Amino acid sequence: MNTLSRLCFLVVSLSVGVLPSPAQAEAFDAEASVDRLQPRGHILAEKVLCRQPGRYIGWPSIVLTDKGKMLVVFSGDRDWHVCPWGKVQCVRSADGGRTWSAAETIIDTPIDDRDPSIIQLPDGSLGVSTVASLAFDNPEVGRYKPYQEYAASLGDTKQELKGNWFYRSTDHGLTWEAAGRPPVSTPHGPAVLSDGRLLIVRNPVVESKDYGKTWTKIASIEKDAETWKSRYAFLSEQHAVEASDGRLVALSRYADGKDIDLRQAVSFDGGKTWSRPRPTGMQGYPAHLLKLDNGWLLASYGRRTAPMGQRACISKDHGETWLVDEEITLSNAVLQGRGDLGYPASVQLPDGTIWTVYYQVEKESHGEFPSLMATHWRLRGE
Asked: Residue 209: inside a domain, yes or no?
């Protein structure tokens, strides 16, 4: 089977998660004693879920399945932010986050597999969206020159592999098969709507009615040139959620100098039309959105300006307003070099607590790469 055929019908077997040793469990207990109270948040623990010495980890996503298990996907075993070796890896927990499995590779094409997201589909299957990138194949960038011989060895295959992919698992994440190719991508992937559709809010907005096999453009979002001055692409790294009143709320990365205020667009007709993006007051990027059990919306996002780290904010009114003055500090980062951190994503457990995963350098030491990290916390003042 050639490389492209292998990718298009990729099936990767995963072993059952391995529980950590008693010593590791005791370490978790020690971490769980961390108790940071804030007006809106109560931090229960911060921990490293996966560390790969000498290797770089980035861009995680998390799902809580209907079986009560948490799965986290991320791009691991990397040289750094851009390289050919990135692969989609997974860790999992079956006990509410007390223990986590070792990392397992679930997708590994010959080019850079990055920006993975994971969701549960309405039929109980799991979906992972990811990007196969050729950013490393650029001889004009000095740091990419060591990769040029490898890139040339791939021939035409690299262009066939390049782009957005959607994978599906019907056995709870043990095996995965390439199911479709979305025309656009975003780090935290599609929103799963109550009518069964998958929705990716970029420009254009696209939907899938067949669990990611095919995608259709349903809308465009207008840019207000007077207020949109970001150096990033319009609607860069957007994520959306369906609020309890049926409206769709989407947050987009934004930066113009010191202005890093997340922008929000809203749809009241299932994604057919959208408001123009407006500032929210939340300072960071990019954002992940989650509807909580009580109907509130939770936005989690990275802060790459001092003080750096992971932050979260609540909306009690379906995104009309955000409690910016009660912003929750999920993690205060040590010095991160260029500030390469973040992309947090969150899930809420049946006990009401929340797990937020992100990538971040754990300790302040020269040359350390980011690890996969998580904060376990709960809301206060509900």
From this structure: yes
pTM of the model: 0.90
Confidence class for position 265, pLDDT limits 50, 70, 90: very high
Dihedral of alpha carbons 372, 241, 266, 352, sign: negative
Report DSSP state, residue 159.
H
- Round to whole Å and give the CA distance between 163 and 292: 32
d(CA 100, CA 90): 10
Would you state the pLDDT for residue 337?
65
378: nearest Cα among 264, 296, 283: 296
Helix (H) and strand (E) counts for the chain? 4, 25
- 267 lies in a domain? yes
227 and 328 together in one domain: yes
The dihedral region occupied by 196, where left means phi > 0, alpha psi between -120 and 50, and beta the remainder, is: left
Other residues' Cβ atoms within 10 Å of the Cβ of residue 143:
13
**Residue 357: beta bridge partners?**
345, 374
Neighbour count for residue 210 (Cβ, 10 Å): 12
The length of the chain in residues reads: 382
Residue 264 sits in the same domain as residue 327 = yes
